[in-house]
Task: structure prediction
Amino acid sequence: MKKEIIQFGTTNTLTVSPTEDTVFSIKFNGNERGQKSLIVYLDVPNMSCKIYCGYKVSLGNTIDLITTIIHKAPATNCDTVIRGVLYNGGVSSYQGKVIIEKTAQGSVSRLEDRVLVVGEGTHNHAEPVMQIEANNVVASHASTTGRVDGGQLYYLQSRGLSREESQDLLIDAFLCNSEQSEY
Result:
């Protein structure tokens, strides 16, 4: 699969229409301002696409991301995995849209958004949207927001790690599940 890194910079909306199977990795540098939107058109039959994003947000910073996947051709496939970590005062918003048009019979689309809260005074908004016009597709979505598992923290601490080291290790493992994370 071809690999592409998506960096918004000062651009608010990026539109792509891959012509070959592609993995997109969305990167945030912490200086982005405003809502960022990635629109992916899957208009080549049997096209496969994966979108991965792992981010960390702390006090005074906000991630506001929209992904829109539009299946236009038959038998297209898209897997979207978004993972975020919110520290004290961190704010995130994610809207994942999957549109499967009537012409996209046999398509498969999966959307997953997971946010780990490790601080206080955080806010997360998640909105998965499915618009399915075809009748022979597989489509799913999942969205969760939660804290670090106390049992996992205890286990690592009982093996000699400090609380901070244990939490950092669990955060790294969580972000690595976005498959592209460099953390």
Remarks:
- The chain has one domain: 2-147.
- Residues 2-147 form one domain.
- The chain has two helices and eleven strands.
